[in-house]
C-alpha cells in the first residue's frame, strides 16, 4: 500500500505534538507538512515546537519548516489532521475543506454540526455518508470529519456492546482526566499538584452531547439520559494515549 | 466546662497521629495517655511515632510515654479513642469496653455490629440509645461507638437533607481518595505517582453498607440502592481532614 | 505591647496571600489595609484574592476592601509589607517611602541597592543603620528594607555560625524549590509534574549576590566564592514556609 | 551477526522488568530464560512479574516460564544479566560464574571487589582484562562484570572528558533521583508525595567509591576528592532510563 501524505495543522502545540508522535512510523501515513500560527511560521519544527513529550522528537519532522495555516501553502497531501485550538479551528478547517482537502479534526468546533460525521470508527462508521450531505450542502470538494473528545472516545467504546445488546436508559459517568488534555501552558501547577479539580470547562457538556450523537443515526442523536462529572487529576497523560 | 481526659490507642500509626493532631488544643478533650503495640511501648511518643504529619508534633504529647494496649495501664480517662488497625481493633476494643471504658473507634471492626452505634452525629444521633442494648447484651459497663469510614462520612452529610426531604431511590457515587487513608507504609509510590488506582480493598463494600446503616433506624438499615466506585489518587491528604 | 497596624501591597497574589496567612494572629502586627492592582480595587478581599492556600482565609481580612497601591489611600499604618511583583515593586515602593512609610519588601527590585538593608535579622541586623544613609541620600522620611530571596534566607542561616567561627572560602549549593515560589499561574503543570526543571530564571544570580551582601559589612559585600544551582521540583510549598 | 542468548536473573522485580524492557528488540541480545525467587518459580512471566512498567509487556517474555536461580536450570545462554537484590546477588552470581557463565550484574554486591571490572564502557573498557585475574584467582571459567550504580553511571560520563583533559581535584555532586530506583514496593507514597527526601541509604558511599574505581587504573582507584548528596524526588523514572 502506498503511504498517504498528511499535513498537521497546529503542529507545534501540545495536541499537535501528540499527532506527530502518533504518526511517526505509522503504517499508513507519513507527515509531509506541518503548519502553525504566525509566531512559528518559517522556523524549523524542532525550534518552533519546543518539543515537550517524554519521547524524543521523531526524525520525520526534524527537517520540516513550519508553514502558515493556508490551504495554498500545504501542497499535495492526501489528508489534513487538525490539532488547532477551537477558537481558530472553525474558520481554518472550513477553508481547507473548501480548497478540496479532507480534514480530520480533533478540535471541537465542528463536532456537533449536523452534517459533520463525529466518528469513533468501531462504533459509528455508518455515519461516514454524512460527508456527501456535507459536500452537497456546503458546495465544497473536501470535507471535515471529527473525532470525539478524549473522554467521549473512551466512554463510548465499552458502552457500544451494551447499547447494541440491551439498549441504554441512563448513563452516569465520572472521569478523572490528566493535565495533558488541557494543552500548554494549561493547568497551573499550583492548582493541581496535591489536588483534584472538580471542574473542566465545557467538558461535561461535550461528553454528554457527543456520546448521544455517536450512538444516534446519521441524522438523529440517541435519546438516553446521560450525566457526566469531569475531574482533573495530577497525572501527566492518560494511559490510553501512551499505548496508542 | 471541665476538660475530658482521653487516651489514644494506636497513637503512633498514621491514623493515630491524625487523632493526636485533632485533639491538640481541642476545647473539650485533652490527651492523658497514648498506647501502641509492643514495638513502641516504653518509648517516648516523639521517638515512637516517627511523626510524619505536615505540622509540628503537638507539645501535649511530647512528654508522654507510650503505654501497652491494656485497660489496666491506661488509668483514669473519660474516653478512649481507637486508631487501631482493624485486625487488632476487634478484640482490644472489647477488652476496654468490658473494663468500663467508653471507646470511640475509627476502626471498621465493630462498625456493622447491630448493637454498636455507627454515628455521623449531624445525621443519626438517634442511634445513640443502641448503647443500652449493647451493654445489656454484652454485660459490660463501657461501650463501643464507631465513626464511619472517611468516604461514608463525607457522602452521608450532603445526602442527609435530600433523604429527609425527598427520600432516596438510588445512589451512584465515585470517590477519589488520598493516600493518607491507606496508612503507613500504605500505597507504594511506584503504584500511585503519575497514576490513579481504580481499586481500594473493601472500600466500596464499607461505603455501601455503612451508608445504609446510618440512614436506617437503630435496628434496621435503610434499603435504597447504592453503588460506589473508589479510586486512589496521588494526593497526600483529603482536604476535609486539613480543616478539621 | 500595642499592636502595629500594617498594610499589605500586592495582597491578592500568591506571595501576598502568604503574607496575610503569616500575619493572621501575629503577636505584633495586625492587618489594617490590603492593596492590589487596578483589577482588584474595590472588591472585597475574599473575592479579589480567589484564596488558594491550603488553610482557610483568615477572618481578619474577610471584611477588607482592596485599595489601590497609592500612599494617600493606605491611611494610618505603622508598616507596609510589599508582596508586589518585581516589575512594579521598584517604583511603587519608592513612592511609599517618599510619603513617609516604612516598607518591608519581599520583592527583589531594591535588594541590591547599596543603601537598602537586605536583612536576615539573625545574621546582619548591624546593616539596619543603612536606613539613615538611605534617608539622607534619597531625602525621604520613610524607608525601604528588604528580605532576601527564599533560598538565600535558608542558606545563610546555617552558614552564619560557620562564617563567624572559621570564615568561608567557597560555597557550592544546590537548591530544590517548590512551585509556590513561582507565583500564580507560575509553572505550567505539564512542565513540572513527574519532572525536575534545572533552571529558575535569575534565581542563581540572586542567590549568589544576596548571600555575599548579607555576609558583608553595611557598605561592602563579602568576597568568598559562591556557586548556586537551582532546581524546580514538583512540591507545593517549601516546608519551611509551612511552619513559619 | 548471530543473536546472543541471554538469561535475566531476578526478572520479576522492578529492575528485572527494566532489563526485560531494554532487551526487547535489542539488536544483539534475545531473552531465552527468566529466573526469579521461589515465590515465582513455575509461573508464567506475565503472572509472576505483575508487570508494572508504563509500556506493555514485551511479547518475547509472555511465553516464558520463570525458572529457579540455579545454573543447571538456565540452559545454553551466552550471557546472564543479574537484576537480583543485593542481599542474594553475592552468592548467586558466584555460583553462575563458577558454572561457567558470564554474569553482567546491576547489583552492588561485587562492584567493589578488586578483581571485578566495574564498567562504564565509554570510560574504562581498559578494565576488562581484570576478568583474567578474576578467573585465575577464583579458579572459575565464567566471570562477573558489574555496571555502576545509576547515579555513578550518569555522573562519570560528563566527568570523563574533563578528567582526561585537565584532571580533577575535587567533585561535589547533588543527585535528584526518581522513585523507580528504590525498587518495589520501595518508597512509601506518604513519604515522597509533595516532598523531597534528603537521604538514600548507602547511595552516597556507592556514588563516591564507584566513581573513584571507574576513573582509576584496573588495580588502583583514582584519588581525587568527591562528596555526594543524594535526594529522592517525587518522579517515577529518571529520564535517562526512558530513552535507553
**How far is it from the N-terminal to the C-terminal residue of chain A, by CA?**
22 Å
Largest sheet features of chain A: 6 strands, parallel
User: How would you classify the helix and strand content of chain A by structural class?
Assistant: alpha/beta
Biggest interface between protein chains, with counts per chain?
Answer: A-C, 18 and 18 residues
Count of DSSP E strands of chain A? 8
Can you offer a commentary on this structure?
Four copies of one chain form a homotetramer. Chain A has 244 residues and is an alpha/beta fold. The first copy, chain A, is 36% helix and 18% strand. Chain A is built from eleven helices and eight strands. Chain A has helices at 14-23, 45-49, 59-62, 71-74, 86-98, 121-124, 130-138, 150-166, 189-192, 203-215, 239-242; strands spanning 4-9, 29-35, 66-67, 79-82, 102-105, 143-146, 170-177, 225-232. In chain A, the strands form two sheets. Chain A has a six-stranded parallel beta sheet, sandwiched between helices. Chain A has a two-stranded parallel ribbon with strand order 7-8. Chain A is globular. Residues 239-244 of chain A have low confidence and may be disordered. Chains in contact: A-B, A-C, A-D, B-C, B-D, C-D. At the A-C interface, helix 9 of A face helix 9 of C.
Summarize the structure in short.
The structure is a homotetramer of 244-residue chains. By secondary structure, chain A is of the alpha/beta class.
Features:
alpha/beta, globular, 8 strands, homotetramer, 244 residues, 6-stranded parallel sheet
Task: Present the secondary structure layout.
The structure is a homotetramer of 244-residue chains.
Chain A: E1 4-9, H1 14-23, E2 29-35, H2 45-49, H3 59-62, E3 66-67, H4 71-74, E4 79-82, H5 86-98, E5 102-105, H6 121-124, H7 130-138, E6 143-146, H8 150-166, E7 170-177, H9 189-192, H10 203-215, E8 225-232, H11 239-242
Parallel strand pairs in A: 1-2, 1-4, 2-3, 4-5, 5-6, 7-8
Amino acid at each position: 500500500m502506498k503511504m498517504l501524505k498528511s499535513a498537521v495543522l497546529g503542529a507545534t502545540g501540545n495536541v499537535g505534538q501528540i499527532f506527530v508522535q502518533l504518526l511517526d512510523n505509522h503504517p499508513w501515513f507519513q507527515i509531509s507538512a506541518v503548519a502553525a500560527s504566525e509566531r512559528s511560521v518559517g522556523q524549523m519544527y524542532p525550534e518552533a515546537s519546543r518539543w515537550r513529550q517524554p519521547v524524543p522528537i521523531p526524525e520525520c519532522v526534524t527537517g520540516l519548516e513550519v508553514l502558515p495555516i493556508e490551504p495554498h501553502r500545504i501542497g499535495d497531501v492526501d489528508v489534513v489532521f487538525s490539532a488547532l485550538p477551537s477558537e481558530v479551528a472553525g474558520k481554518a478547517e472550513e477553508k481547507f475543506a473548501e480548497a478540496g482537502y479532507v480534514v480530520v479534526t480533533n478540535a471541537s468546533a465542528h463536532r456537533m454540526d449536523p452534517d459533520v460525521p463525529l466518528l469513533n470508527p468501531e462504533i459509528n462508521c455508518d455515519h461516514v455518508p454524512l460527508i456527501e450531505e456535507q459536500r452537497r450542502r456546503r458546495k465544497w470538494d473536501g470535507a471535515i470529519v471529527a473525532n470525539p473528545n478524549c473522554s467521549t472516545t473512551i466512554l463510548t467504546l465499552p458502552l457500544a456492546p451494551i447499547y447494541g445488546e440491551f439498549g441504554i436508559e441512563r448513563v452516569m459517568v465520572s472521569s478523572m482526566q490528566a493535565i495533558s488534555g488541557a494543552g500548554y501552558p494549561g493547568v497551573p501547577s499550583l492548582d493541581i499538584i496535591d489536588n483534584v479539580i472538580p471542574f473542566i470547562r465545557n467538558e461535561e457538556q461535550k461528553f454528554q452531547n457527543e456520546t448521544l450523537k455517536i450512538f444516534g443515526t446519521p441524522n438523529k442523536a440517541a435519546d438516553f439520559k446521560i450525566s457526566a462529572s469531569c475531574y482533573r487529576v495530577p497525572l501527566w497523560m492518560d494511559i490510553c494515549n501512551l499505548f496508542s
